[in-house]
Amino acid sequence: MTDTTLSTGPASPDGLHTGDAAKMRLRARYAAEARFKWLGAGAVALAGFFLLLLLSTIVTKALPAFQQHYVMLEVDLSADKIDPADPRAANFLGLVHDGLGNEFPQVSGRQERRLLRGLVSTGAGVVLREEIEADPAMLGGTHRIAVPLDDFADLYLKGLLAKSGPSQRIADVRVSGAGDEVALGFADDAIMAMARGAGAVEGEGGGLRLTSGSQSFLLRIAGGTVKITELSSREAGGAVGKGTVLELLERSVETPADATLRTIETAEADRKITDREIVWLDRLAGAGKIENRWNTLFFFTGASREPELAGIWGAVVGSALTMVVTLALSFPIGVAAAIYLEEFATRNRLTNLIEVNINNLAAVPSIVFGLLGLAVFLNWFSLPRSAPLVGGMVLALMTLPTIIIAARAALRAVPPSIREAALGIGASKVQTVFHHVLPLAMPGIMTGTIIGMAQALGETAPLLMIGMVAFIVDIPGGFTDAATVLPVQIFMWADFPEPAFQQKTSAAILILLGFLVIMNAIAVVLRKRFERRW
Amino acid sequence: MKKVLLTASAAALAVAASAGVAAARDQIQIVGSSTVFPFTTAVAEKLGQSGAFKTPVVESTGTGGGMKLFCAGVGEGTPDFTNASRAIKDKELASCKEAGVTPVQIKVGFDGIVLANSKAGTTVELTKEQIFKALAKNVEVDGKVVANPYMTWADIDSALPADKIEVLGPPPTSGTRDAFVELVMEEACQEAVEAANEKACAEIREDGVYVEAGENDNLIVQKLEANPKAFGVFGFSFLDQNADKLQGATVEGVEPTFENIASGDYGVSRSLFIYAKKEHVGVIPGMEEFIAEYTSEAAWGPEGYLADKGLIPLPEADRATQADEAKALKGMGS
Question: Which of A211, A479, B31, B187 is a Cys-bridge partner for A389, taking CB atoms 3.0 to 4.6 Å apart?
């Protein structure tokens, strides 16, 4: 082969690079490049798609949690209700319930009153008390006070509990009889067809019964509300029916009058709110007494078992305190260890062993650090349980290897010429490191620290053992107060049975992400300030 | 930069050192069962809202884990109460005694365990025997003990739907699982199975029919919604809170309702307890008030806030005796 090419003279480059085989090879190479480019772009697009999907589901689920419905009630704070000398002893929730009762004077009977009271949050008393404590001048008169609604009422008003059908006018409706059960008369039997479509049960003699398994037909007439329970056609035309009075009619309807029919498409049995409660809420909303407010309770209170009162602030403070301890311990120790190992230590078996072990520690499951914390910090040092101090110490142990590894890599990346120049003009080893090498390595060290801290921020497993996975209401005031952290709060809310906690969970995830972004932004700003170029 | 770092780390170490000699604890610590957790937290919150005491810290460690911490000894480092979804075992009581701990037992109510499915699915009526046949690892067929052959509900009883058996439930670490096994599987155990191997009664099949869905009952609820043919095993409070989506299967002809569990008609229910550490009363502030709050009618009564959270109240007479004994701090075994 070589001989033949030699005998015919030097190989023509054209022959090697322009032959058919060469063109094929070239095309294959270009195709491979294009394929790789497309695959890479595809991978990025896929990752972006999933990120977007994740974020949009969380955001859409979380949005309702950022708002809360309040009901405005006239609450009597006169001296015979609250003793001005000792206001704390008053029954605040009772006062709120009285205020609500005054809105619905016709509601009687123990069960019905209990249902009505259930519309406001059980924490309404605390809200009222805090408002009075903030402004004692309120005592002694009647005041309009906004209290949060119960979680189910709130979910209904947000449209998450029941589906409302359209409201429509129905002409010439008669209502006769008194008491809870009344007889109804309709001018035409179009309502029969509507009831059939709404899942009414066929009764004897061609009648229809609307049960708790069918849609609810609420008839608004003469200032009251009647729930239709039975319907049947009349031979003379029109229809008659029976109904339960949910809200007292203001006047009797002897002569036919116009009515509004409101349908609730979700059957009563399939929702956690009764028709009666819906009627009350509609009445309050109609009178402008319900306000949808920005949910300040969520942002500025601690945890609670009542979804409408549960807040994230306790966990945010707990996370911040824990992170401060973690940073204060792991950053200086980690950087010092890295500097020693990289710049001062002689290479021998001992330093090699240490290096291998640091790398191994970075891969240890985080729960192990929790066990260590339990054994050493709690049992041996007898530090308090559930404290951010201990949590921070455990997380610092977990973060140390990450910081040491990143810091060493950053120090190694500083060009030797910098060190040599410094040493050359007479700087000592310590001066060289602290005046020249460390500042140049700082951006890399910061990056490693951010990664380590972000990891620590999301940990729950190591905190389980030291009692930080707990229900803690009070907002921690210091490093030794009982506290929990954001990921634990998310985990606990996801576990509570009340459906309103599902939105809270998503909202808390957003807060955790926000916390992370703020933490990283601070680190980026710091890095920019310390960054030096050469 | 260097100075900032040094000050920060010095400050952290100083805090760490000073915390070693912690001041007397003024906050109640509670550990124990995850089943009782939702109720105890509600009471803890109420105590905190009263303003006189800090809100107790409640941890969910499981009944067994809680007992271990609780019985570890007397002192600020140990919890003051533990929640339990079963009565204290003799062994645990002995270890408590040994450490100088006198537990005060307070029975706070009942919890029903339900077998429920989505409202979109069929309503079923089951007996304990049928549940055993559906879920046991080994069953008796024609006088022989064999690995469970039943794949559809109709295989067990032709009156049941011809759907594949699919049950989501808690893993073996859960107290709900323990109670379910004790109240259903062991009670309905077939003699031949028991004769073959005493422990076989408690064994749940592992061929994919019973799916361990983790400790998070909300997850089971969501999965049931997505799959109307599947059933789930969980505590009554989750059925109660999700009554708009789920329906409970009747067991032995009794529906799992609040009233039926309270009256004891529903067969799959257990008692829930809290245990107070007598030695800590008077040392840790608020313990007596916490007990008083828990045992007040406003909390554990039929219309109390714990009933709203799904706790099934004790009968009235039992509530009275339990409250009296709790207030008198009647220690166990003393």
Answer: A479
